[in-house]
């Protein structure tokens, strides 16, 4: 039916070439961000992904990734949604790395049937990291006593205001190892025989796109426009897909009406924004991109 309707349109008004939907997944991967800077997670990525895979005549969906990682849960959820949509709509997924697809960013990239990068892109960092700060000595200096009351002997585990305990560190490391193994299994399942036999592959190291090809983490070095036109013809159109917007534009996550103490809410949002930006800056900074 679509082909018949298209034939009724005068030739000079018809768009030639195949249209390939493009989705950009960019930023630190977090369950929640600030009201001023939405994070990359399933809820923010899903609408654009659903829209892109709904292109009836497109043979593939192109996904651009630029992320230093973040939440392993959200990374895996985005990965799963892409693979589910690819199977449901029978689309090939082509992933293109921009500056970086590391840690959770690379986990999402694994959803691609093929992964491409620039020679200077950063890929890999297949590992798990947890970070924080400890303040017990500072509390002593300023004369503050920490009081914690719990029901459950491990409820206050890894409290940053108390000295570290070896058993708590070991427990955290055991959780990291479990998550790391899930990541490793995903890489092996998706990349299979393409992977090089390198002892550092799952050590958390990261590499350039060129080295990523040699290690089997990347399929080739190319940019999106060149690769898609090479595959589908010089008249191929790249159509950027974004999340649907409301009548007056997209509503920022978490913003409600103006009832209540507005000053308090703005101040609270400002503090959350600073913390979120600091966390994101730290993630980018690991790869020299802060």
Automatic annotation (TrEMBL):
Residues 88-225 form the Peptidase S49 domain. The keyword Endoplasmic reticulum does not apply. Signal peptide: none annotated. This is S49 family peptidase. Belongs to the peptidase S49 family. Pfam families: Peptidase_S49 (PF01343). The keyword Protease applies. InterPro entries: ClpP/crotonase-like_dom_sf, Peptidase_S49, S49_SppA_C. Keywords: Hydrolase, Protease, Serine protease.
């Amino acid at each position: 039916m679509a082909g018949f309707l298209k034939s009724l349109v005068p030739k000079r008004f018809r768009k030639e070439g195949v249209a390939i939907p493009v989705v950009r997944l960019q930023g630190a991967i977090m369950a929640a961000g600030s009201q001023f800077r939405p994070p990359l997670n399933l809820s923010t990525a899903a609408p654009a992904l659903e829209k892109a895979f709904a292109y009836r005549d497109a043979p593939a969906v192109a996904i651009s990734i630029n992320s230093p990682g973040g939440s392993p849960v959200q990374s895996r959820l985005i990965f799963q949604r892409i693979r589910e949509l690819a199977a449901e709509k029978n689309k090939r997924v082509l992933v293109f790395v921009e500056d970086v697809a590391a840690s959770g960013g690379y986990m999402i990239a694994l959803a691609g049937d093929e992964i491409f990068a620039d020679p200077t892109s950063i890929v890999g960092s297949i590992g798990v990291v947890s970070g924080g700060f400890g303040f017990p000595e500072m509390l002593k200096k300023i004369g503050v006593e920490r009081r914690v009351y719990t029901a459950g002997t491990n409820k206050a585990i890894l409290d940053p205001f108390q000295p570290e305990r070896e058993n708590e560190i070991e427990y955290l490391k055991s959780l990291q190892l479990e998550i790391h193994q899930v990541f490793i299994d995903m890489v092996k399942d998706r990349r299979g025989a393409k992977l090089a036999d390198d002892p550092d592959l799952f050590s958390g190291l990261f590499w350039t796109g060129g080295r990523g090809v040699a290690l089997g983490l990347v399929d080739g070095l190319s940019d999106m426009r060149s690769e898609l036109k090479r595959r589908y013809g010089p008249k191929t159109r790249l159509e950027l897909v974004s999340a649907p917007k409301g009548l007056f534009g997209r509503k920022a996550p978490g913003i409600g009406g103006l009832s209540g103490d507005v000053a308090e809410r703005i101040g609270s949002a400002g503090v959350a924004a600073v913390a979120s930006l600091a966390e994101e800056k730290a993630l980018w900074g690991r790869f020299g991109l802060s």
